[in-house]
Amino acid sequence: MKFYRNVYPDELNLEKLTIIYIHIGKTAGESIEKYLKDTFHDNEMNLVELHVYNSNEILKSFLKIRNEKLIYLVSTRDPVERWISSYNWDKYVYIYKEPHERLSKLHAHIKNADHLVTFLSSNNINDETLAKEIHQSGHTCMGQSWYLPLNVIDQLPKNKTYIIDFRNIKSDLDRFVKKLNLNSLNKDAILQKSKHDYKFQVNNSENIFSTKLSQKNLDFLKNFLKFDIEIHDILLKNFKN
Question: Which pTM value belongs to this model?
Answer without folding.
Answer: 0.95
